[in-house]
Specification:
This protein has about 300 residues and is an alpha/beta fold. It contains eight helices and twelve strands. A hairpin with a 4-residue loop joins strand 10 and strand 11.
């Protein structure tokens, strides 16, 4: 989280209404793009997050992970997110739980007071300790039967152990050696474009570190040559300017990108990828982008 905005990130302190209104319009436009592709869209319930001390329902990738026939709810470390899935997505999960072929794993209840932030100074600089499982689903990416993830300020050792216990048989979890001391979510660090081709953030991970994982040993990899530029309006309250890497692949040739990230879009074309522009800067402002704002509940592989 950028230091410039630390004083604004307080309980019950909402984002500026103008940013929220614009973000809602951008999310509606994004949903329309997906619906045009005949993708069935589930939208979260409307929740007054400011009244319950919550965060947002706009980033389902943070809280839900789909592995095979299993939907896994994240064990959030942030206090403001502990009821997020229950509040915004319970009706969706209830619908899937009626299907005997689907397994839904709900997050375990957290004791109160939560000791997750006690005495963390010695734990490699991360914000959480290992007193209980903690992980955000957005700290992991699935490559076939392998989930690649990272330790971060929201994902700890116990969280990875828990995830290994609840994923279906035949799947595995491997941890990538990243170099980001501020790590929180991996989807602006490793960006799969299609099977066999990925882009990575050279400031956060090396190609050598990625190739240590057998599942990526034969992949074509490109360090992103585009450098982020500072942005003040609307502010990036909760993300770095590398947020432009947080894109959504629709198929092997098309990805959704932020409309003003023109240089990045042009570079993607050199890889044979066609960018679909969509305004999303106000969604960026509240903490995510296209990959964060989606989670694929049903897919063919």
């Amino acid at each position: 989280m950028p230091e410039d905005y630390w004083d604004q990130c307080k309980p019950f302190n909402i984002f500026p209404p103008s940013v929220l209104r614009a973000a809602c319009q951008e999310l509606d436009l994004f949903a329309a793009i997906l619906e045009k592709e005949n993708i069935k869209i589930y939208r979260p319930k409307s929740v007054r997050w400011d009244e319950i001390g919550g965060y947002s329902g706009a980033m389902p990738r943070d809280g839900l992970m789909v592995v095979g026939n299993t939907i896994i709810e994240a064990c959030f470390s942030w206090r403001c997110r502990k009821k997020e899935i229950q509040q915004a997505y319970s009706c969706i999960l209830d619908e899937f739980e009626k299907d005997p072929s689907v397994r839904v794993v709900r997050a375990p209840k957290v004791q109160s007071p939560d000791p997750i932030y006690d005495d963390c100074e010695h734990l490699n600089g991360w914000a959480t300790n290992n007193s209980r499982p903690a992980f955000d689903a957005a700290d992991f990416l699935r490559f076939g039967k392998t989930l690649l993830g990272q330790f971060s300020n929201v994902t700890n050792i116990e969280g990875v152990k828990y995830l290994r216990k609840v994923i279906p048989p035949g799947y595995s979890v491997e941890i990538v050696q990243t170099t980001d001391p501020h790590a929180m979510h991996i989807d602006a660090t490793i960006v799969p474009l299609w099977k066999g081709l990925l882009v990575y953030n050279p400031e956060r991970v090396t190609e050598a570190a990625l190739r240590r994982h057998k599942v990526l040993s034969k992949w074509e990899m490109h360090a992103c040559p585009v450098k982020p530029t500072p942005r003040l309006s609307p502010p990036l309250y909760m993300t770095s300017s590398w947020i432009f890497l947080n894109i959504l692949s629709l198929d092997e040739k098309r990805v959704v990108v932020e409309a003003e990230d023109v240089e990045f879009a042009q570079w993607l074309r050199t890889l044979g990828i066609e960018p679909i522009p969509c305004p999303f800067r106000h969604v960026n402002s509240i903490g995510g982008s296209f990959h964060c704002a989606t989670v694929d509940l049903i897919r063919s592989d």
